[in-house]
Amino acid sequence: MENTDTDKRPLDFIRQIITDDLNSGKHKQSITRFPPEPNGFLHIGHAKSICLNFGVAGEFNGICHLRFDDTNPSKEDVTYVESIQKDVKWLGFDWGEQIFFASDYFDKLYDFAVQLIESGHAFVCQLTPEQMREYRGTLTEPGKESPYRNRSVQENLALFQRMKNGDFPEGSHVLRAKIDMGSPNLNMRDPVIYRILKAHHHRTGDKWQIYPMYDYTHCLSDMLEGITHSLCTLEFQDHRPLYDWVLDTLKTPCHPKQIEFARLNLTYTVMSKRKLLQMVEGNYVDGWDDPRMLTISGLRRRGYTPASIRNFCKTIGIGKSDSRISMGVLENEIRNDLNVKAERRMCVLDPVKVIIDNFPDDRIEEVTGKNHPQDPDRGERSLPFTKELFIERDDFMEDPPKKYHRLGPGREVRLRYGYLIQYASHVKDEQTGEILEIHCTYDPESKGGTAPDGRKVKGTIHWVSAVKGVPVTVNMYDRLFKVEDPEEDKDIDFLEQLNPQSRIVLTQAIAEPALVLLQPGESVQFERQGYFCLDPVQPKKDNKFVFNRTVTLRDSWEKTS
RNA sequence: UGGGGCGUCGCCAAGCGGUAAGGCACCGGGUUUUGAUCCCGGCAUUCGUAGGUUCGAAUCCUGCCGCCCCAGCCA
Predict the structure, then answer these.
(1) Which residue ranges form the domains of chain A, and what is each CATH number?
(2) Is the pLDDT of residue A302 over 60?
């Protein structure tokens, strides 16, 4: 990892706990784990957890396991386990040999369940789901004990065995922990730990008819792997007593410590896998890797770098208060990274023709541009300059305000790395008012952009040769939702808050020739516009190169649309 | 009207009884052949609120207010 952080940021509360446990000798090494359920693609929220768990391992000379929490075959799939591994690797983390599956523990988990039954701590219940809900009680009233709660150990053992054998239909029997129906914590009211599920599991096939529940599986998986610190999100705080109960009751040799932290929320997007799935399946976006999605694969396709995502996770920190981080923070990280890494190129997104009246008709002159203005080592490239050019439609105004630094009647501007040009005239469609072409004259003495007399011009604009430029398609991506929190108003479906302008496809854009040399996924800065990458998935479409806008450049010039 | 959490600048976030770090955003100024980058400078007498303890509190105690999570045979 190319991350040289010498910063002395204070430790977050989790790293403090780990530091203390290491110093006190409670543990000689920290072992964490990232435990995704393979039922969807990873998103930036998972990146926070990945950076935390793998980050801790890296900083404390510990180990971080990758463990798939695959206990619900009805929702899980191998395609997800594959994409998850790809994304974790891409983010720059390595689990080495430490890749595990909760499903690998099914036999042991079954044996533990038998132990629980034998010690009188679990029973087979035949209440229907509806009855179970009634017996559970409410937030303010205690629950009632199941009539099946006091079956004999023998009977429970036999029934559980038959559940395993597939003798009963789904929903007819469950194995429940015998805890306390009067507990104010609903999770402790005799929670279900095994249910019958006649589904094909992506790893164990049809071996099992019963599958363990999360609360029962997670703590035991952590214990089996010798996890020291089990880091999860805030909504699991109420589950911690159950996590501890299972391990205490089974008198396991080790007892990992569960610590919860706040999950990530960002403005102008949604984070839940359920909602992301809904957008994918409803075709509101073009799949899990749509560049507007905050999935890892979407960010990758958008042009975000692993380092920018890691830095983002580092700057937001770890805490316990619900928060919603401004999208600007993420954008700031990718700008910081790409400002250093991306070479500069010119591309005219919305072209209007400029004709240099005093430039020879067929002449093609080469001018040179720096690949990176702050880094001479990045070298230079050649740019063809011709009589007919394209500039940005935005860069010309018939009646510009005084602070406008671009082209207009009577004005002279610099064509970046080219020549100084002076406005001569322009022609427009009298019907529509559309500017058709702009005539200028150039100063032959100003090649490269500076005049011998040292005169200053107010602005520098980018351009592309009309004859040598190459047509490209550019996807202008913007925030996916129109509002900061699409889930704030419970009466409005979040899908109604989608930003209809989140993707604008520009088909008339024209780029400097050097742009065709890029590799798919490679990032560049289109000067004065932003950072773009050649689409890694579909670099060419209709025989034209396709670019994705990662993020705009910061713009202190208020655009008067 | 049960339980579990959380409340420090517009957004995050340090702070762990000794007198409010940092980042983003924002506002000034400088450099600049990207209105970018970069560089300087500004930006909470105040820590949800009301009391109490203390020489001294954002940090300890009490009450109140606000927000989030929990009644899946999901994770």
Answers:
(1) 13-261 (3.40.50.620), 273-344+472-560 (2.40.240.10), 347-462 (2.40.240.10)
(2) yes
CA of residue A335 to C1' of nucleotide B32, angstroms = 19
CA–CA separation, A221 and A187 (whole Å): 19
Distance CA A244, CA A392 (A): 64
Please answer whether residues A65 and A95 qualify as being in contact, where contact means their C-beta atoms are separated by less than 8 angstroms. yes
Tell me the pLDDT of chain A averaged across its residues.
Answer: 95
- Residue carrying structure tokens 């591994």: A85
Task: Give the model confidence (pLDDT) of A177-221 as tens digits.
Answer: 999 999 999 999 999 999 999 999 999 999 999 999 999 999 999
Indicate whether A5 pLDDT > 50.
no
ipTM value: 0.95
Which amino acid would we find at residue A261? Answer: F
pLDDT tier, A458 (very low <50, low <70, confident <90, very high otherwise): confident
A561 has pLDDT over 70: no
Q: What is the DSSP string of A96-119?
A: TT-EEEGGGGHHHHHHHHHHHHHT
User: Residue A532 CB closer than 7 angstroms to strand B?
Assistant: no
3-state SS assignment for residue A231: strand
Label residue A10 by pLDDT band (50, 70, 90): confident
- As given in the structure block, the two tokens for residue A194 are 């095994």
Helix (H) or strand (E) holding A396: none
Task: Give yes or no for CB of A72 within 7 Å of strand B.
Answer: yes
Catalytic positions of A: 37, 263, 273
* CA atom of A441 to C1′ atom of B49, Å: 70
Within 10 A of A359 (CB to CB), how many other CB atoms are there?
A: 19
Residue A346's pLDDT is: 98
Q: Sign of the CA dihedral A359, A361, A366, A369?
A: positive
